[in-house]
Amino acid sequence: MSSLSSPEAGLPPHVLASAAAHAAVARRRKRMGDLHLAALAVVVLGPLVVYPLVRLVLLSVSGDHGLSFAAYRTFFGNPDTRNVLLTTLGVLFASAGTASVLGVLLAALLFFKPFPGASLVTRFLELYVAFPSFLVAFTLIFLYGSQGSISIALQHLFHLENPPLDFLFGIGGVILAQTVFYTPFVVRPTLASFATLDLRLIEAARSLGAPGWMLARRVVLPIAWPGIAAGTVLCFLLTLNEFGILLVLGSARLVTLPVAIYSSATVDLDLPTASAGAVVMLALSLALYTVYRRVNRRAMGGAMSAEFRIGQAVPRHGIGWSDALLKHASRAALALAAFACFWLFALPVIVVALSSVSTQWSGTILPAGYSLRWFERLGSPEYDALLTSLEIGFGVSAIGTIVGLWLALALEGRDRRGLGAVVDALVMVPNGVPSVVLGLAVLIAYHQKPVDLSSSAAIVVLVQLALILPFCYRCAAAALRPELTVLREAAASLGAPPAMVLRRVLLPQLVPALRASLALGFALSLGELGATLTVYPPGFATVPIVVIGQVERGYYLPASALSLLMLGASLAALLLIAARVPRGTRAAS
Fold first, then answer.
1. Which CATH number fits the domain that encloses residue 177?
2. N or C, which end of the chain is more exposed by having fewer CB within 10 Å?
3. Does residue 155 fall inside a structural domain?
4. For residue range 191-202, what is the model confidence (pLDDT) as tens digits?
């Protein structure tokens, strides 16, 4: 009778002791996790995320006599606001819609009918995050500007009196630049969804005589749709929040909401109205980001980042040419696709390199000559900016990696409800917030006493840390596999103290993830523009700020030389990840 009421009664003593030890370890881990979460919420996420955003909202509803919505009345009462909102939505749907369609088509070609070099294209697209968006817009000036290579080539080809292209500095150029930059963000999750397909379903449907269009509609799309939707929503979110491209190619007639917020805060010095616009932008972005998180969780079970990390080629099934879903595509179409990949994604990188060593490149198809004089003419302001960018990049990435690992360990294995859900949501909020809005929030929070950082470089470190922390956190969380948890619990049950478990068991297994976090955080920090441009103090400059200043003054070639140095540092950091992918993963890809 007692054996029925007590299941443990018949177990050997050593089994009971082991179970009790594991239970004690689990209870101790939960208590420590609760303490760590509370400390993270108060010490890290409070100053980085919560306090700035709360101050932003409070300023937008503050008046001379308390609560007031005057800032919102001013914002929505401005005749230009309607045009700004319409322009924002028009550019958003045109750019993100085009990028989404191109991204899905390119992913389908890369997966189902890979042309020679497709694996290199896949890896290059994953490293494309090292290319700042404003730099894409800058390179297009050399190609599609009125005196750019393409325009001059068309003029010579058709014997025209004047160069035919004059669309770049306007809505057409912005849509082109955003399409080029954000298409890879759709390719990645779409490839990840295609990788989950059971090819036996496709073969079975083909053996029954199903045509290609029916295979795509009835077999591929229902399975891959969540990943396609996740990539599309992400593309819309990033395009909505875009700032750097508008800064380079926009005009007085082309003002989107992020640009209007930045101008109101830094040019008009109207912080209440800027904060009202920022709250509107914040609501739109967070709503879209919430949709993205839901779709992304459904697409890959919340594990997309764990399976497909930056710098690793997305696994592709070994599909031959005769087995491809797109079997009716001609070799000419594949050649065109390969050429389009080169033209859209590789050519901007080549343009930066060529323009940095050209003596002159305006009104000619290729540079008139080649020289290193633009590197030689870089003075102390440019090298000081480069050194500042490197110092902040290394510092921010190191802090972000440490805090991200701390967050991942504290949230490991927790039910995503209660405090764990709140902390997880807070750390990911900067992913969905426009960099200009986050920069404005940090500026409002820390531009006066009791904590005045407005004249210190610390405010730049603070805002960049908030921006890269979600990526560092996801890198660490993706590496905390269940088998690693078992090893840690086994070591703890054998009496190993927490410090030894961390040093001897955990960290050696997390080296690839920590390397990825450092490199990705460094690259993102090095190219960050929107938030830094909003908060940077007088006398302070990073490479993107200097490059933007040179572009605005028409100094394109010196800007190219400095950009190449920045881009080289970013790509070197990201290539460290690709170079250290485990052999088993390489073989699988």
1. 1.10.3720.10
2. N
3. yes
4. 888 887 777 777
